[in-house]
Design brief:
By secondary structure, the chain is of the alpha/beta class. The chain is built from 11 helices and 8 strands. It binds glutathione (GSH). The site of glutathione (GSH) has 13 residues, from loops.
């Protein structure tokens, strides 16, 4: 087993699953700390993250901050946390000695792959690693649009909806084209580009849970014709999610979609 990267987050979180799946495949040890999303407002966000007592959650707490993205109310983040995690987000990871903060789930994923002895998870050469990075960057652009779309679904606007449609078509058509050439996104073997795709795309499909709201706003599900439009991407998602390394982490997350 390699070194122990520590990750603090709300749980379950598909962004954390990326690293856990890679750690399982790559034989890297990873320590996950966290709680349900709604409980994270009563945690101290820190390298030594912990649940706070009622007495510690005061208005004059030096750690009190306002949530910036996805968390509406008060959060308790230490100065040290914000030094190592300048954007103040979770998942928040730390090098084994706690000295280096690593943020952005794709970068935490890269860190796991770099710590691993696995031959192909991060490609077979530096250039292939860079190609994997290219997919991870494209994936983050998609995932960021998806994050805004899902967080603001109750107040969906024409502009917000059409941004998500473009991001979906752009990203999925690139993935589809890649899968028409290789078995996996980058090559003939699984890399972290596949892991990142599965976790972020599975999360995007949660738009299906908001079908009624989306319809009420006068729109339709963006992924409605996924099977016809991007069959290889869908097959890749479902196929990988059934592999043990994925399914033991993702649990029943996609069951509702498969049962549709
Ligand atoms: N692109 C980032 C997204 C991380 C992110 O936006 N996290 C949000 C929760 S979904 C957060 O930690 N927000 C903290 C806050 O609201 O202050 C990743 O993949 O890690």
């Amino acid at each position: 087993m390699g070194s122990v990267l520590r990750v603090f987050s709300y749980l379950p979180n598909p962004r954390v699953w990326k690293s856990v799946i890679a750690a399982n495949i790559g034989g890297v040890e990873i320590e996950i700390i966290g709680d349900k999303p709604k409980n994270l407002s009563s945690w101290l966000w820190d390298y030594n993250a912990r649940k706070l007592s009622e007495e510690e959650m005061t208005q004059d707490s030096p750690h009190l901050r306002k949530g910036k993205r996805g968390f509406a109310g008060a959060l308790y983040k230490t100065e040290e946390f914000l030094k190592s995690q300048p954007f103040g987000t979770v998942p928040a990871a730390y090098s084994p000695d706690g000295e280096i903060g690593i943020f952005e789930s794709n970068s935490i994923l890269r860190s796991i792959a770099r710590s691993s002895q696995h031959q192909t998870l991060y490609g077979k050469s530096d250039f292939e690693a860079s190609r994997i990075d290219s997919y991870l960057d494209a994936n983050l652009v998609f995932a960021r649009e998806a994050q805004v779309y899902l967080l603001e679904v109750e107040n969906l606007t024409n502009e917000g909806y059409s941004r998500m449609v473009s991001a979906y078509e752009f990203y999925l058509s690139g993935i589809e084209a890649s899968l028409s050439r290789n078995k996996f996104i980058v090559s003939e073997y699984l890399t972290i580009a596949d892991i990142s795709f599965v976790c972020d795309f599975a999360q995007f499909l949660r738009e299906g849970h908001y079908q009624k709201i989306i319809k009420k706003k006068g729109f339709g599900l963006i992924s409605k014709d996924l099977a016809q439009d991007f069959p290889l991407a869908l097959k890749h998602l479902l196929g990988l999610s059934e592999l043990e390394e994925f399914s033991k982490v993702m649990g029943s997350y996609l069951d509702w979609y498969k049962e549709k």
